[in-house]
Amino acid sequence: MHVCKKQWITALILLVLSVPIAVTAVFQGWILTAADAPAVLQEPVSMTEGTTAYTDSEPTEEPTAEAPVLLRAVSPQQNLSADGGMVLELSAEAVPNAKVSVALGKTVVSLAPSEDTADGTGFMLYKGSLTLPAGKPKKQKLGTLHFTAELDGQIGTLSGAFVTVNALQYADIPIDVGQGSVKPPEISGEGKVDVLSPETDFGRGTARMLCVTADYAETCPGNTANDQSSPLCTPFVRGTYDYITGEGTFDGKAYYITKSGYKVEQADSESFDGYVLPTNTASVYKSYTSGESHIILTMNWKVPFVSELKPQTYHKGYTDRVFNVVNSTAQYIDFTFYYTNAAEGSADFAGSNAVKSAEWRNIGENGTATLRVYLRQNGKFYGYRAYYSSDNRLVLSFRNKPKSVRNAVVAIDPGHGGRDCGAIAANGAYESALNLRVSALLKQKLEAQGVRVVIFRASDTYLSKDDRQRMARESGADVYISLHHNSSPAPSMSGTEVYYYRAYSKPLAASIHANLASAWQEIYKHNDAMRAHVIPQDGGVRYYPFGVTRVEECPAVLVECGYLSNTAECDACFDPVNQDKLAGAICRGIIHYLKNS
Q: What is the 8-class DSSP label of residue 486?
């Protein structure tokens, strides 16, 4: 679980307030910086997990001691600036059967009930959307979002973000569409690709450009007025160029909007005045399998690209997110390269148990070309990494399934640590210490099975979300586990959940959860009331964009072993016998996945 920076403040607030408040929401802006957020939180989760749209301000109308609290949290909360025409997602937590609306100037939007927030306090999540007006030569200050909930003559209000529509400032960039002729780049005598630079005038006009300076710059959809993550988006790798078509501030962070249709955090890139580049040619330079399966591409310039497993169906599930998965069904993974209307070459991955071949599809369609990599078995995918080599070629490396359990590498990330203590348990202990204890037991059990284990911390040390993502990417792991214990403002909440982000992580999440649930049912064999709540109504295997699970290199999940805010479950979690059982259950889930995936 993922609670506040200074946990004692939480206890003080609970003593002062006479009504149930979502304690975690008060400090959520810090929580998400710590790499993940509590299961009780709903909308939204930012791309960087560094901010939140929940309010920590007082209601605009202070309720009396007798008045019910109708509205407890709204989104967006932090001031934002966005381009005209963007869709602004709105949400609020209010009591059931309330009439909930949002006013922005003279525009009023009704919010519809979505689902119970599942934290035991009885609030519902209400959602809606608003399309911002078209941009104008001057910026438009639309004002503050005012949220209202009405029920039985009672009214509750909260203020949200101040919304500004950016002034029009970027000219549109014409893109070549349709299939063009192959024009490979120049290759130096040392075999290095002479990639084109936007600092050179090619006679196609000027443009405001960005260059990605981070190793991996996370992206999110460019047409929404938020920075919510999507597994259909792919991080841009270091050195990628793109055209800037707009800017925006969402949840307190500044972003560029790109011509390719994505948002890139300004902190992960640099902008400059450059020149429009010629259309790109992508060529297969080499493909081979040695440990991993590799395909190496030569391109005229470092264009943006995204990947997507297809065909894969999603459905609305936990927190109304549309990327919940029933089964992994993909037959191939598509890499779509922007500003590319010519491509050549194919690949055959002899010796790979993950991918079998690759070919170009839809060359020139909408100014893009797609490299389709076919999977060896439908629904079986183990991750990939992407980077530019020293000779300026793009390398895509696909992870193969380990030949045996003894060939596998598992990365264990004990949640929290150091100044980030996580949840404070009902017995006053820190979650971070318990996470470390169970992780150490899990490491021992995996190693007894012959698995090589990489553990991110062995003491009470602090790691940021960025640290954890980097370590996951560099670990060479076949499986990544972020281990946590949960908490809720409702002390009756109990049970276990496992979270995934990418579709190919769902089988791992399901395997671990099934074994954890069995362990808890055994622990509660003499407690029918607790046993009945081991598995939540939605099954407990959930999509959620926790920052630490947003990696492409391997299946990655976040495990919530149990609720430390529930006195009975807290006692069970701190029992050394049960800790051994839970670690054993997670181990069995991982081993089952490695053998059967």
A: E
